[in-house]
Every structure is written in C-alpha cells, then in structure tokens.
Amino acid sequence: MVSTTSFKTTKSEEIFAAAQNLMPGGVSSPVRAFKSVGGQPIVFDRVKGAYIWDVDGNKYIDYVGTWGPAICGHAHPEVIEALHQALEKGTSFGAPSVQENILAEMVIDAVPSIEVVRFVNSGTEACMSVLRLMRAFTGRDKIIKFEGCYHGHADMFLVKAGSGVATLGLPDSPGVPKSTTTNTLTAPYNDLEAVKALFDENKDEIAGVILEPVVGNAGFIVPDAGFLEGLREITQDNGSLLVFDEVMTGFRIAYGGAQEKFGITPDLTTLGKVIGGGLPVGAYGGRKDIMSMVAPAGPMYQAGTLSGNPLAMTAGIKTLELLQRPGTYEQLEQITKKLADGLLQVAKETGHDVYGGNISAMFGMFFTGNSVHNYDDAKKSDLNKFARFHRGMLEKGIYLAPSQFEAGFTSLAHTDNDIEQTLAAAKEVLADL
Ligand SMILES: Cc1ncc(COP(=O)(O)O)c(C=O)c1O
C-alpha cells in the first residue's frame, strides 16, 4: 500500500529547516521549495522505478520523474549497470570519447531536424547557446519567444510573460539588464497573428522564433492545429530560423520528439532531460550549414569543461536504447492516457471544473472550466484549489509537480496498478476539496 494513514514528515522538516541556512530558500532550484503550493517539501532518500521514498520512510508514486529524465523509471538496472562499467574508466575526460559519437549518432538518427549536434550540460546551456547561434547565423539580434514558455534561466529568456510588460521586453528578474532583454519579443502561445505583427514591426531584424512545441512550463498546453505549420511558414518567408526547444518533449512525446509527432521540422532543436538519462546533459543541433558556425568548425564560441562527459553520455545512450525497444511509446501513451483521462473524470464526478489531457508520457490538468491555449488561459486556474489538491495527494502517497504551471510525467515503470491507486487517491482528495 503506497498511501500512509499517519503521514509524518518529521525528518524532512528537520533537514529542510537546516537547509534554509545553507542554500537560498533551502534548495538548489526554486520550484523544489513548494512555494506555489505551500507546505513543507519532502526530502528524498532514494528513488526506484515509479517510486520515491522520503527520509521518513514514506513511499510515493512519482509523476515528476526528476522533471523529465526518468522516462524509463528511476535508477533503471540497465542504466545503473552501464554507469558502473563507465565509472571504472573514470568520471571525466575533457577530451573526445567514443561515447559522444554513439549518442550523437542516436540523436541525429532520431530527431528529424538534427544533422549535427553539440553536447552541453543542461537545458539552460543548450538554449542560451542556440540563441547565440541564431544570431550568429542570421546576423540579426531580435528573437521571438512565447509567454509562459521557459527556455532556462539565461538573461535573454527571462522576460516577463503576459501583459504590456512582456511586449516592452522588461526583464523578469532583478539582475537582468534591460539592454539584454530588449531584443526578446514575446507573443501569446498559439497566436499566429501576434507573431505576424511582430515580424511586420521588425522587418529583417528577427533572427528566429523559439518555442516549446508542446508547452510544459505553463502547465500542459498543446499547439492548436496549424500553429506549428504557421510558424514554419512565417519564419521561412522572413529569412528567420525556427527553433524547437525540445528539452522537455524530446524523446518523451515521441522518440523523435514533437517534430516527429507533428511532422514539422525546425531549423534548430534544443534537448536535455531524457538524453542524459538522469545525469546532466543538454544538446543543441540542427542543419549542418547552421551548426558549422559553432567553434571550432566556425566562429561562434561555445565550450564546456564537462560537456560530453562519459558518464552522462553512457546514461543517455542506455536510456535511448531502452526507449528504442518495441512498444515503449505505445505503453507510455496507454498508461498516461489512462491517468490523464481518469483524473479529468474523477474531478468532474466530484464537481470540479477541469481541463487537461496528455500526449504520450506528458500530461496536465488545470482547475478551470475554460479551455487552455496559452499562459493567460492557464493563469485563470484556481491556484488555491490546486495547492490543496497537491497537498492532499502528497499525504496519500502521490507525488505531483508542486505547481499548477508544470506538466506531469509518467514512465515505463508506471503500472496500471499505480494509476488505479492514483485515481483512487484523487477521488478521495477531490471529494474533500
Ligand atoms: C523546455 C525547457 N527548456 C529549457 C529548460 C532548462 O533546462 P535545465 O533545467 O536543464 O537548465 C527546461 C527545464 O525545465 C525546459 O523545460
């Protein structure tokens, strides 16, 4: 039985209290602090398959999957075994290795837009590097991003989403100079007219458009029919580049990512999460003529001490090998659809207005009666209700992302039984909200 009747998190509380004096907010990355749902975060002890154990011994069914990488399940035995063998040869080379070639070939074979790839250490690094490349290749400075899309924490992407502030390009965070973000133009997601207007107002100045082809960072939002096609057309007509940030969707919503799923090929792509199999990896890649700009092949500088690290490459290779096995994406779709449809159903049965769905192993549910096509729609959700739902589920042994504005993730390790337990817990929690 996963859920605990006497839910205690005494050790978590002690460790998290001590962490407050050691790290800003007690964490290494903000969302982990549970600020948007309130209450105490749990401190993990170990993870395996679809499960997490906290330091108090509570067990949870996990739908965060370390924010995406754990698509084969946490600590998959074959990934662990491959890592053991790789460890024996050392932890870092800072020099070429055959593992880089193997993972590069796998990525190039899988992702339609990628002819040449560069490995980095995180999604943030991949996105900031691709932005430099967009500018270097086109000789233009301006870019378009969408409200509610997250492309890591580099200065130029930290532009407030929504309202007049967004269009003025005012930075989202202190410490980001206004001069860094004035070239970052924003539009509402799924709004082709807004994109066209920006191109009209900034003729021959826009290097390209970057987006999450399925949004996961404003909650789970899918592209409307024709949106990705429209962006492909507009960018082509204007001599601009189209960049899919597939850090989240890559190897998750299909082996070849959103570009395979929707049949739209961007010029450049960023990757992360799954391709590192739980170790720190990011990557950017695309058309050979564009990637030839990257040093040392070309003049655009970008480098990294630990980039292409043999451990990270090994975990990535094994993870992709596991994903290539027959039936994996059918299994991910079946299990995730059962969960997403089931959540919507129990929420409606218990009298709540909800909107959501899934694509393959990515899902979401907003507490709103409206359909959600962009960040403004998402912001109409009942955040207080989400917070209470989140806490209730946690206390029943279900670990959901601690924000309404995050997608959920499943893995090959999640079983029908896990989903049924989750839905039973949701029914009880929702009935009490
Ligand atoms: C779409 C997208 N791009 C970029 C990033 C940044 O990746 P990282 O956290 O590895 O720096 C994330 C992280 O969640 C993401 O979801």
From TrEMBL:
Cofactors demanded by this protein: pyridoxal 5'-phosphate
What are the UniProt keywords, alphabetically?
A: Chlorophyll biosynthesis, Cytoplasm, Isomerase, Porphyrin biosynthesis, Pyridoxal phosphate
The leader peptide range reads: none
Q: Which residues carry this modification: N6-(pyridoxal phosphate)lysine?
A: K273
Chief place where the protein resides: cytoplasm
Pathway in which the depicted protein is active: Porphyrin-containing compound metabolism; protoporphyrin-IX biosynthesis; 5-aminolevulinate from L-glutamyl-tRNA(Glu): step 2/2; Porphyrin-containing compound metabolism; chlorophyll biosynthesis
Catalysed reactions, as listed in the record: (S)-4-amino-5-oxopentanoate = 5-aminolevulinate
Q: Name one GO cellular component term.
A: cytoplasm
Q: Which InterPro entries match?
A: 4pyrrol_synth_GluAld_NH2Trfase, Aminotrans_3, Aminotrans_3_PPA_site, PyrdxlP-dep_Trfase, PyrdxlP-dep_Trfase_major, PyrdxlP-dep_Trfase_small
Top-level taxonomic group = Bacteria
Q: Name one GO biological process term.
A: chlorophyll biosynthetic process
Where's it found, cell-wise? Cytoplasm
Give the EC number(s) listed in the UniProt record: 5.4.3.8
In terms of CDD domains, this protein maps to: OAT_like (cd00610)
Q: Which GO terms describe its molecular function?
A: glutamate-1-semialdehyde 2,1-aminomutase activity; pyridoxal phosphate binding; transaminase activity
Q: Which Pfam families match?
A: Aminotran_3
Self-association or partners: how does it assemble? Homodimer.
Q: Which PANTHER family match?
A: GLUTAMATE-1-SEMIALDEHYDE 2,1-AMINOMUTASE, GLUTAMATE-1-SEMIALDEHYDE 2,1-AMINOMUTASE 1, CHLOROPLASTIC-RELATED
Q: What family classification does the UniProt entry report for this protein?
A: Belongs to the class-III pyridoxal-phosphate-dependent aminotransferase family. HemL subfamily.
Protein's name in the database: Glutamate-1-semialdehyde 2,1-aminomutase
This protein's species is: Stanieria cyanosphaera (strain ATCC 29371 / PCC 7437)
Lineage summary: Bacteria, Bacillati, Cyanobacteriota, Cyanophyceae, Pleurocapsales
Q: Which gene encodes it?
A: hemL
